[in-house]
Amino acid sequence: xxxxxxxxxxxxxxxxxxxxxxxxxxxxxxxxxxxxxxxxxxxxxxxxxxxxxxxxxxxxxxxxxxxxxxxxxxxxxxxxxxxxxxxxxxxxxxxxxxxxxxxxxxxxxxxxxxxxxxxxxxxxxxxxxxxxxxxxxxxxxxxxxxxxxxxxxxxxxxxxxxxxxxxxxxxxxxxxxxxxxxxxxxxxxxxxxxxxxxxxxxxxxxxxxxxxxxxxxxxxxxxxxxxxxxxxxxxxxxxxxxxxxxxxxxxxxxxxxxxxxxxxxxxxxxxxxxxxxxxxxxxxxxxxxxxxxxxxxxxxxxxxxxxxxxxxxxxxxxxxxxxxxxxxxxxxxxxxxxxxxxxxxxxxxxxxxxxxxxxxxxxxxxxxxxxxxxxxxxxxxxxxxxxxxxxxxxxxxxxxxxxxxxxxxxxxxxxxxxxxxxxxxxxxxxxxxxxxxxxxxxxxxxxxxxxxxxxxxxxxxxxxxxxxxxxxxxxxxxxxxxxxxxxxxxxxxxxxxxxxxxxxxxxxxxxxxxxxxxxxxxxxxxxxxxxxxx
Amino acid sequence: xxxxxxxxxxxxxxxxxxxxxxxxxxxxxxxxxxxxxxxxxxxxxxxxxxxxxxxxxxxxxxxxxxxxxxxxxxxxxxxxxxxxxxxxxxxxxxxxxxxxxxxxxxxxxxxxxxxxxxxxxxxxxxxxxxxxxxxxxxxxxxxxxxxxxxxxxxxxxxxxxxxxxxxxxxxxxxxxxxxxxxxxxxxxxxxxxxxxxxxxxxxxxxxxxxxxxxxxxxxxxxxxxxxxxxxxxxxxxxxxxxxxxxxxxxxxxxxxxxxxxxxxxxxxxxxxxxxxxxxxxxxxxxxxxxxxxxxxxxxxxxxxxxxxxxxxxxxxxxxxxxxxxxxxxxxxxxxxxxxxxxxxxxxxxxxxxxxxxxxxxxxxxxxxxxxxxxxxxxxxxxxxxxxxxxxxxxxxxxxxxxxxxxxxxxxxxxxxxxxxxxxxxxxxxxxxxxxxxxxxxxxxxxxxxxxx
Lengths: 534, 452
What we know:
Distance between the termini of chain B: 14 Å
CATH superfamily of the largest domain in chain B: Alkaline Phosphatase, subunit A
Shape of chain B: globular
Number of helices of chain B: 13
Helix content of chain B: 25-40%
Distance between the termini of chain A: 38 Å
Number of helices of chain A: 24
Largest interface: A-B, 82 and 85 residues
Helix content of chain A: 40-55%
CATH topology of the largest domain in chain B: Alkaline Phosphatase, subunit A
Number of domains of chain B: 2
CATH class of the largest domain in chain B: Alpha Beta
Radius of gyration of chain A: 25 Å
Oligomer: heterodimer
Strand order of the largest sheet of chain A: 3-4-11
Largest sheet of chain A: 3 strands, antiparallel
Structural class of chain A: mainly alpha
Largest sheet of chain B: 7 strands, mixed
Radius of gyration of chain B: 22 Å
CATH architecture of the largest domain in chain B: 3-Layer(aba) Sandwich
Number of strands of chain B: 9
Strand order of the largest sheet of chain B: 3-4-1-7-8-2-9
Number of strands of chain A: 11
């Protein structure tokens, strides 16, 4: 059965649940799916591991565009394999990005294509022409000046190529395949018992964290300013916001990458619903829902510069014509959701449709999302031997079906009490993301509860999606949790470790700071500039 | 060989759909065994996700095919059902990382196996004895529910070398990569246009890359995890340079055989405009049927002409909900937890695709003139990681078609109740002539009844 993306089988996970909160997990724990021990064992603001991180596919493409100044019309993008997704939902985890034979072959294919394009565009004549190319483009590619030895290698390659055009062609291909381009170095140099990142490593880390791409010439020129915390903060602000204070497009896109991964929005691309039960569901609706979530995120995070609480409680949304017709309320443009239609990003049609099967809403999946990705609590995967899922019938509500399956069984309850009662709050929304006043003609009970791990502690109760949103917004753990996912994406490490690498920055967030301000704070942490020596 | 077997069966009054599996079965199996030939053997792995209810997969006592496997009944006389295989040390969807590696994977969060899957063990053997232009080919058909979910939790990671191998999800890209030079008639892919010394410059570029990687390895030498990362990278570059793993003399891969046909494949061209320039398009469920056909056609062509001897094709991901075009469209994994007949109809649909592959391979073998077909010289393995509903990994569906050049018995059913998948993998290795020392992680025991 599924794990992590809130699969159907989770609905019936009934035995063997060991509900724990991540930091309380005992003993040395490996990063999921890797052999790396977790960095975080309860510390705060620690220096993380020395790293070499291969560029993700998106970073590779963005960096090639920066280095070689290629737009989409002139180059379609790399043909390398997709990047493995991490358990946190992102595709830039340092430990999962490797170079195997297939990757190396396809990188070569992409690099040679870029070489052809660049050579045709930049081919030049005359003495010194290639060296100018090497020193300008090479510096961008390696994110530092080339060493004498590296220059000598490229000059030898150029000589073998014959003329300047061929030299530029093959040098471009070589730069893209070079490990100095392909990996972001966060190794640093030993000093006073720690490894300190040099100014170029800092510029690189900042550019990728805030823009998802290589530093440009301007940032490399000012790399020396990055060795102080104040300098880093000042440059980060410049990188993220323009003179008017508006977020720059690359920064906006980088933040949206995090938010989309956190919400698992990619699932919408193929999300199917039963044609019999939801005849109005269509690919157009799916696409419009994805657009609605994106517009909501842009509005709250960038236009309003909202905090996590606002992300969870804003009742405004922006509909297009498809959703006006599908939802059956409002008009195109920004509007406040009607009563009953919930609040915040968790009650948008797209996120609700993801938290469902193709035939029915899933309180378990919706509750699992809140528990693991809004409160950052751990739920063990379902046991492997659960049985088949009864089909929904018209004789009962979804809540009744879940309660009869789970609530009556103490084994099921071990886990499901942590999920289902949260998910019940969304029961006014069907599997296709639309409000329903009744289900099968029955009244809907959308009251819910957030149970504590300790059964002796009274649960926090709420009514409906808006009530849940308000409860979550009041919980300091929420902002910290969402921020830790953003940190995980920005640092390319696990959420668990990100939390203790950026503890102070996350404290700021819990204190009501705008979510996007976290990105600037992340460049001021100890981890950003220092690494633990092995 | 095939004609002789069929003639024999006809002479015995047994049709292809009516193979008995007890009593007479063992005799037939023996008779169906062919003398191992010197034909180049091929291996094709076909993971069948989420299994199927046993009574709908296994033939009845009277033999023949089952509800699910009936679509490839034409190949019953070359099909061997292997009953009783369990995925040792694993279960459920995370058994996808165990099924072809034999390594125990205890749960989703467990690290990857760290050993080679059987395809790579056999690919090593081929590379060391009779190398091909492509060591192995790995194709996928919607191998994740979205591009962003690629290899999430190892749900769709079957093949290891010993780190996870990537699979190509776009048949257009796969076709172009393998058969570049469209509409040029039969050509040898991989030949470069003679405008410049491409191979020489490519080698020089690779040398530069390797030198720089060496520099970085020096800088990172004290960081164990990063060292391992760079060693893997170095190994990949060594392969590109044509060096065997572990160093040794340069041994560039041979060019693709001249018998490779690079003319357009209709199934691929039908998708070209949709897929070109849009990586996500190869993950759209509405293309599932067309993608499947196209990938089968690409794979069959690479295997047939000897461009590779080892290929894999995975359709969907272990708990993915690709929409199977059955009963108006059923989500694969969700259906595995629902109505067993509906899910069996899904698996029967996959079996029809399997039949397309078998049909494509059932052509005279261009590498072995003399009457045998590519399928005769291939072993096409259908193996599931678990069963539907409770996802137990005991007695999973397992069969193969084709005898790998007479090395494996065909047209029978072998019961190996309680046997580990490792014994099955060991059997494949032995059938392909792999030294036992190279397949030690599969243990010492094979299923002797499978070996001719």
